[in-house]
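An instance noted here:
***
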Amino acid sequence: MRNKKVVIVMPAYFAEKTVERTYRDVPEEFKKNIILVDDASRDKTVEAAKKLGIKVFVHKKNLGYGGNQKTCYTKALEEGADIVVMIHPDYQYDATMTKELIRPLQDGWLDIMMGNRIRSRAEALAGGMPIYKYYSNRFLTLLENLVLGLNLGEYHTGFRAYTKEVLQTLPYKCFSNDFIFDQEILISAVHGGFKMGEIPMPVRYFPEASSINFKRSFKYGVETLTTLVKYILDKSEVRKYPIFNHRSAKH
């Protein structure tokens, strides 16, 4: 898969101040295939992205973080992507590590890769991660590992890569338009038999980086637990849910 097409997607919302820094860190060979979807920002995100030569799509009204990703993946597949890399354009993630992120997908032994920001507690907190986010991240990740039978360091990252088979198989258009989309796609992928891994990466929290507040974080946590319950019920054939209704069987 070394010669397969890699498309980078950026779900953007008020990223005017950070999109250029994120773009500059993307390895040169991937810059010609970047798609930014602006979710009705009221700043100059669109202008800043177009100035860099990025292909931009604009939502006329705000669809939410999950709704933004749906457009990102649909557009990437329309562009003929074999591997789709999602990175938040808020400069919280190190785009220079894109090659390392996608290598297991290029080699064909994994289907999904993620950037793990929590190699150690000290590094995560020193990088500016709020302490309540750190502990909630640890709690949810522990539960997800137990339920899904995996041993990943983090499920809550905004730097990910998917093969086209993942996106063509999972019913991502029926997932939530909210932040829980991130967990629905991963849990649905595990349900469908896809394999995932991760690489460690630095933590970067700063004023311009996007971050949801405590109330939204709490809602996200509850919805993550709910999605895990749905996974258990669906796997046990007690009740079926649309988010696990895969379009085709890969495994």
Observations:
- The two ends are 19 Å apart (CA to CA).
- The mean pLDDT is 94.
- The longest helix spans residues 214-235.
